[in-house]
Design a protein that fits this description.
By secondary structure, this protein is α+β, with helices and mostly antiparallel strands. 59% of the residues lie in helices and 15% in strands. It is built from 3 helices and 2 strands; from the N terminus they run E-E-H-H-H. It has a two-stranded antiparallel sheet with strand order 1-2. Helix 2 packs antiparallel against helix 3. The chain is globular, with a radius of gyration of 13 Å.
Length: 75
């Protein structure tokens, strides 16, 4: 992970992640599906999309199904 910018005023952090880091983050979020809230589903869906595009250049069927499941659970 490379931290590019941290802003207390904007309450945001800009980072770059490599493919291995994305895979690890997605695996952690997959294992923590007990968190039934919008933040979890938004993070998990977006990270899976970024992971597949970074690793393979496309979104496979498994990933697409998981993203759709996450988005359907957003409240």
């Amino acid at each position: 992970m490379n931290i590019l910018n941290i802003s207390k005023e904007d309450k945001e952090v800009v980072v770059t992640l490599d493919a291995d880091e994305l895979v690890r983050l997605c695996n952690v979020l997959y294992a923590q599906e007990k968190y039934d809230d919008n933040l979890h589903y938004t993070l998990y869906g977006n990270l899976m999309m970024a992971r597949d595009l970074c690793q393979y250049g496309h979104i496979d069927g498994f990933c697409f199904e998981r993203i759709a499941k996450c988005r359907s659970k957003l409240k």
